[in-house]
Amino acid sequence: MRSGPCLALSAKVKIVHRPRKKPRNLESHTVLLIGLSSAAIAACAKVGEDVFNNESGPFDEAVRNFVLIHQNTAVRDSFLIITRVASPSVIIPITAAVGAWLWRQRGLPIAGAVVMSPAISLAIFLAVKRLYKRKRPEGGARLHELTYAFPSGHAAASAAIFGTTAYVLWREEMLPRSGAAALAILAPLFVGASRVYLDVHWSTDVLGGWSVGALVAALSGHVYEKTRTETRRSHRYR
Predict the structure, then answer these.
(1) Residues 6+ apart with CB under 8 A from 39
(2) pLDDT at 26
(3) Is this model's pTM higher than 0.90 or not?
(4) Which structural domains are found in the chain, ordered by start?
């Protein structure tokens, strides 16, 4: 049995519930993701409408003619390497490996947010391709790319994958802000440019693909922030 003083001391002890800390700067990240989502939706709607109504022809033809006139063998060979390396069949497995690494280092919710983006972007662009049934430029046949053109799968997958991965690595402080921005912007930019330069896609195919990919990346960022807030409260928030 407890002694009298011990009982008195234990009676005075009160359980204090500390308020949960809110993620620092979460509001600014939310605003960023909402803004990106809104811009991507607007771009998807505009480009999709123009292509569906056959209003993008003059723009696409002008860009194509300019590119064909100014093509260079060395640049073409470089873009051919980029377009092959950035094929969805290549970068999706690589992304899965990155997700597995993040799972071991940071936890399953982070990996889920990264790995989720390629599957969603591929499902979206495959469905839209069947809806539009747009033919590719003549260069598509030369490179044996005979599927429908709009939107570009390379552009969609690269924007979704690199955008999501860059955001997560930045939030996990594995990349500085400048490095994450370069990965999210420059990588899809070169991939999309390679598709137009090789004459396998119209320019609006690439713009549509980027829009779809950006939307997927923004939604993946929302999922990341949600899982991070709900399941990782024991970790230090940035």
Answers:
(1) 214
(2) 52
(3) no
(4) 24-231 (1.20.144)
